[in-house]
Specification:
single chain; about 350 residues; alpha/beta; Spore Coat Polysaccharide Biosynthesis Protein SpsA, Chain A; 7-stranded mixed β-sheet; two-stranded antiparallel sheet; 11 helices; about 35% helix; Glycosyltransferase; Nucleotide-diphossugar_trans; transmembrane helix; signal-anchor; Nucl-diP-sugar_transferase
Length: about 350
């Protein structure tokens, strides 16, 4: 399927209302006779053409290309409010947060969403300017950077301070979108959609989430917050969340932010955002309307990729798969390859970004 099917035929939100008109063709040359008055005049003309005209043409083409190339600097001033308004459909925004090394995963995730016809709702929160410019170059308006950008030189390896700095910004982004009045769905980009998840957000609960534990639940399991584990807290995944713009959802995001402040990263305690999310859930369980999504539809990677029997028993029920319980770009890509879930090689034309 051609990629242009996913390019929205609407205006660029920051487009220039006065685009530069197509350049005029090069000056035409007047015909001249070979019987010119003197040979010297002919030679002189050739020297002018070879020595002056051709270099000027090259310079002119260069100047023209710089002048007409769409400006990317304008995206620095693009705000989250503008971006959310631009992409929202039916009051809903689908959000991911991406740094440049994860662009292949972003594309893979987008292909799977495009197959479910929800790509227009996607907003990429770029965590560096290279990502901001790259995404908006190919898909104008669908990426925004909320300053300040994290240090691009800090590795985003799981457990690192860079990873903590990267993920700890998440609840602030989500809270801001909620404050704008939108439903918001957050995904990590190491996920793949196999079906439309929106029918599963039934009812009017504040927050919908998935369990990160691998033990098999009954198909009719409770949708209440599971009981705490060995560490005194639940093990809910912070990588797939759906929130309605309610006071309860906003309260949870604020509590998540507080818990992150109380549990900063250190060399001794290599924190990430998920424990803080779970502490917030546990402390607000009686104040916020919480909903645990079906395990069969939203399995953790530790279950889907490691329990073949369960996969067969729940065949046809899977909606969003998370490629977690494994570390490293190459290992994640290989696993996707092994399960025919790495789509970017053969299906890039289905992505709004094409072959980035």
């Amino acid at each position: 399927m051609s990629s242009f099917l996913y390019q929205r035929p609407i205006h660029n939100p920051l487009s220039d209302p006065y685009p530069i008109s197509p350049r005029s063709s090069a000056s035409s040359h007047k015909p001249y006779s070979i019987f010119s008055p003197t040979t010297l005049l002919v030679l002189l003309s050739l020297m002018v053409v070879m020595g002056v005209f051709f270099p000027w043409v090259g310079m002119r083409e260069s100047l023209f290309s710089v002048t007409t190339r769409p400006s990317i600097a304008k995206w620095r001033d693009y705000t989250l409010a503008q971006a959310a308004s631009f992409v929202a459909r039916n009051g809903t925004v689908i959000v991911c947060a991406v740094s440049q090394p994860y662009l292949p995963f972003l594309n893979n995730w987008l292909i799977s969403i495009a197959r479910q016809k929800h790509q227009d709702k996607v907003l990429v929160i770029a965590e560096d300017y290279a990502t901001l410019y790259k995404v908006n170059e190919w898909w104008p308006g669908h990426a925004v950077l909320v300053p300040p950008a994290p240090d691009a030189q800090t590795a985003h390896k799981f457990g690192s301070q860079g990873f903590f700095n990267f993920t700890s910004r998440r609840p602030r982004h989500l809270l801001q979108i909620l404050e704008l009045g939108y439903n918001v769905m957050y995904n990590d980009v190491d996920m793949v959609w196999l079906a439309d998840p929106f029918p599963y957000f039934e009812g009017n609960h504040d927050v919908y989430f998935t369990d990160d534990m691998t033990p098999v639940k009954p198909l009719n399991h409770s949708h209440d917050l599971p009981p705490p584990g060995k560490k005194g807290r639940t093990y809910i995944c912070s990588c797939m969340i759906f929130l309605r713009p309610t006071s309860g959802a906003k309260l949870l995001m604020k509590k998540w932010i507080e818990e992150l402040k109380d549990q900063p990263w250190s060399r001794e305690k290599k924190a990430n955002d998920q424990p803080a999310f779970n502490w917030a859930l546990d402390k607000l369980a009686n104040e916020v309307d919480l909903y645990l999504l079906p395990q069969a539809a939203f399995p953790t990677g530790g279950l889907y990729f490691k329990n073949k029997t369960w996969v067969q028993e729940t065949k046809g029920m899977h909606v969003i798969l998370h490629n977690n319980y494994i570390l490293g770009f190459e290992k994640k890509i290989k696993r996707f390859h092994d399960y025919d879930l790495w789509l970017v090689n053969d299906h890039a034309d289905e992505s709004p970004l094409g072959r980035i």
